Each structure stands twice: as C-alpha cells, then as structure tokens.
C-alpha cells in the first residue's frame, strides 16, 4: 500500500537535503599510485562485452595504461583487428585494493571513453558478494548518449520514493537486481555535459559521491564553468559538502535499509564494449551496422575510447 500526505512529503524533502557532511581526506590516487593501489582485473566481463581485460604488465607494454605524475590514461586497443575467436578487443578494468563503507569520493576526470559500442563506468562494488553488498554506479553510459546515469543495484527489498529533491530525473524506482533485467534504480543527471562527447569537449569535470547511513548523493560539476566548489577543484585535507548545491541524484534509506543492502565497496573503473547495454541499444542509439563487427574490424573507431583521470580522492 502506498500513500502520501503533507507530513510525509515534508519528511521526504528534509531527508533528501539533510546529512551533508564535512569529510577528511583518507586516500589520494594520482598518477603512478594507481599502478600500486589498484589491480588490473582480467576477469571475463560480467556484462558480456566484446572485450578482453588485460593484466597490468600487458596494459603497460601495449600502452593501454600509462601514467604521468598527475595523470592515468586507460584505453581500449585502437591498433589491431580482432580475431572473431578471441575474447574481444583489449581493454582495461582496475579495482582499488581498499574498500570503503561511509565515505565521499571525488573523481577528477578530464576525458572519458567515447564512441559507438563504448560503455565506460566508474563505480563501487563488492564483486565477491554482489549483489548482497550493493553497487553504486557513479559514472556510466553507453554509445555517447548523455546525460550520465547514476544507479544503485541491490538485493531484493530496496526501493526509492518519488519526490526526492534533486536536479536529476528518476527512472526506475526498484533497485532489485532480480527484476527489470537488473537495471536498478537510476537517475539521469541534469546536465548533458556530464557524459560523452560534450563532457570531453568541455575538458571533463568532477563527480562527487557521498555515502552515509541515511543517503547516497552524487554531484557533477563541469570543469570549465566555474561551478565546482573550492574543496573539489582545489582539493585539500577536507571536503565540505555542506556548501554544495542541490545534488544531481539522491537515494534515501526511507524504503531501503542501507546497512542491510550495502557493505564495504571497492572502486572500479573500466571500459567495456557492446555487451548487455551498449550492444542492445547500439542501433537505437544511432550507431550503424553491427556492434561486434565494429569492435572486431575497425580499430580506428576506438581512437577516443580512453579515460584521462587527474585523480581520485576518498574522504572519511
């Protein structure tokens, strides 16, 4: 049974704006320490992408991963035709060695992979216990279709109420991975500059995710429009989200017990190709021909399929 009244609407508004925090810097990942603090995973892609995730040695040798003092680049191969019998086009998937409970994370991204068939993601998950410990997708999209989508995926029993105060647009409200083809409960951010070609043309931007026992929020700030708070654009020892504007996305614990549905999560950044999302919407998103044929036969199509990340900072 579902009903609303003035009191419940007021409580919902309060819940969606409360619990901003001042956080203290815990971990900084910039340049070469991505190579020591993250692991290059070589698993088969769980989303069935046409991709071959390679280990760190292979990624470095083939220039699919390289670092400078203030940059990590991670990309799909853009040189080789792929044998149809191979696992897929070589690409990169990295996972943080540390996991986190309540925290805030800032992703400073200059460029994200773009192009038909691409499906880049920056997210948090416990792969060994998925979906029991939940999943938070901070950056995700497919085939250059903006805006960015922020999504929760959980075990059964986690839903999100209507009327949450946020700038983005709520999509499905049931986060349960066992229904709706595991689409989860997503929010499309308000800014088309938050994803794809427009994001890259603007020099990228900053994504901030805050997780407390009461809410999970994500903000996006474009790099070149001056909207980013000082604690984001010029990071120091603290992150003060009490000064932030209304979030792009808000998820509350009103009808989802966060302590039950979310555990300690690792940070994962990856690029898959085709697969369950980008592959299924390939033609509907305006991409011609076959997704798998593009991946196999046209390496130059992946010239812009790379991450350029200035840094990831975790606050607790």
What ranges have pLDDT less than 50 throughout 5 or more consecutive residues?
A: 1-19
Overall geometric form: globular
Order of helices and strands: HEHEEHEEEEEEEEEEHEEHEEHEHHE
Taken together, the total number of domains comes to 1
Helix and strand content put the structural class at alpha+beta
CATH topology: Jelly Rolls
Quickly give the CATH architecture: Sandwich
Radius of gyration: 19 Å
What oligomeric arrangement do these chains adopt?
A: single chain
| Percent helix | 10-25%
- Our estimate of the beta-strand percent is 25-35%
The first-level CATH class name? Mainly Beta
What integer is the average pLDDT?
94
The number of helical runs is 8
Biggest pleated-sheet summary: 9 strands, antiparallel
* Alpha carbon gap, first and last residue: 38 Å
Protein architecture, described:
With 316 residues, the chain is α+β, with helices and mostly antiparallel strands. It has a single domain, classed as Jelly Rolls. Helices cover 16% and strands 34% of the residues. The longest helix has 12 residues, at 6-17.
């Amino acid at each position: 049974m579902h009903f609303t009244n003035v009191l419940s609407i007021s409580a919902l508004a309060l819940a969606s704006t409360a619990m901003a925090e001042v956080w203290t810097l815990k971990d900084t990942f910039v340049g070469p320490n991505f190579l020591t603090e993250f692991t290059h995973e070589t698993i088969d892609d769980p989303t069935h992408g046409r991709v071959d995730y390679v280990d760190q040695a292979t990624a470095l040798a083939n220039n699919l991963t390289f670092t400078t003092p203030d940059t990590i680049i991670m990309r799909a191969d853009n040189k080789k035709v792929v044998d149809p019998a191979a696992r897929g086009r070589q690409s990169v998937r990295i996972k943080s060695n540390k996991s986190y409970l309540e925290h805030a994370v800032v992703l400073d991204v200059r460029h994200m992979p773009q192009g038909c068939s691409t499906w880049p993601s920056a997210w948090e998950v416990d792969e060994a216990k998925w979906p029991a410990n939940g999943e938070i997708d901070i950056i995700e999209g497919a085939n250059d279709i903006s805006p960015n989508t922020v999504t929760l995926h959980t075990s059964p029993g986690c839903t999100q109420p209507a009327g949450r105060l946020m700038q983005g647009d709520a999509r499905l409200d049931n986060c349960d991975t066992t229904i709706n083809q595991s689409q989860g409960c997503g929010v499309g951010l308000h800014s088309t500059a938050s994803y794809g070609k427009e994001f890259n043309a603007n020099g990228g931007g900053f994504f901030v995710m805050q997780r407390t026992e009461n809410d999970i929020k994500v903000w996006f700030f474009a790099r070149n429009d001056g909207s980013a708070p000082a604690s984001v654009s010029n990071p120091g020892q603290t992150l003060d989200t009490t000064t932030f504007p209304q979030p792009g996305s808000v998820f509350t614990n009103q009808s989802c017990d966060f302590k039950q549905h979310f555990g300690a999560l690792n940070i994962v950044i990856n690029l898959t190709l085709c697969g369950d999302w980008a592959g299924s919407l390939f033609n509907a998103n305006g991409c011609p021909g076959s997704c798998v044929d593009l991946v196999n036969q046209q390496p130059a199509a992946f010239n812009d399929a790379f991450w350029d990340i200035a840094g990831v900072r975790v606050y607790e």
